[in-house]
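Q: A small favour: would you put together sequence and C-alpha cells for a protein?
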Amino acid sequence: MDLQLTGRTAVVTGASKGIGLAVARALAAEGATVFAAARGTCPVPGVTSVPVDLTGPGAGTLLAGHVGDADILVNNFGGVPGGSMAAGGFLELTDDDWQRTYEMNLFSTVRITRALLPGLLRRRGVVINISSIGARAAFKPVDYGTAKAALNNLTKALAEEFGDRGLRALTVSPGPTRTQNWGDPGGYAGQLAEEAGMGLDEFLAHVPARMGITTGRLTEPEETAALVAFLASPLSGNLTGADYLADGGVIKTV
C-alpha cells in the first residue's frame, strides 16, 4: 500500500532507538524526508539526525531551525526516569522525580510542538504523540501514568483548537513493547523483575499472562511504527483527536 508520504517532511523525536527508531525507518521507507531528533544518532540511511537534548528549553527553536516547515511531527521522546523506577510507590516519589518525569513526557512535547506548529499549520500537517497504556490504567509508577494522561488531553486539545486550520492530532498508546525498556536488565522490565525476585527472562515469560495481553506476546516496535505511518498519511486524513492502542489487548475497557 502506498501511504502517499513521498515528498513530505517528518520530524521524529527520540528516534535513536526503540519505537522512535522504528517510526523513523518506516516513514523513510515510505518516501518521507525524516529528521530524527535525539541525543544519539539515528542509524537509518537517508535520515537526518539532529543532535539535541529534548528536555532543554531551546530544543524546539533549534529543531525548527534545522527542519523548517514539517508535514508530520511524531513526539516519541519520553520514558520513566531512574528515580521513578526505583521508587516503591507514591510516597517515595519526590518533587524532583515528578519534575523529571513531566519534563520528559509532557513539557518537552509542549515545547517541540509549539515551535513546529506554525509550519505544521502552513502544511496542514499532523501531530502524533506517543503516549502509553499507563494513561488509561493505574500502573506503576504513578508520575509516568499521569504525565501520559496529560499528554492525551493535550493531543485532544490541539485537535480541537487547530482542526479548522487543517491540523490533525492523534495519540498512539503502546503497551509492553520489545524495546530496551522491556529487554534490557537495566530497563523498566528489569526493575520489575528485580522487585518480583526473578531473572529477566523468567519475568518476561510471565508478562503476557500477568498483564492480560490477549495476543500472548509483546508488541514489536515495527508494528507500532506501521500504525504511526498510516495515521501520518493522507489515507487517514479524517482521523483526529483519537487515541489508538497498540497493546496487544491489555486494556479491556471499551
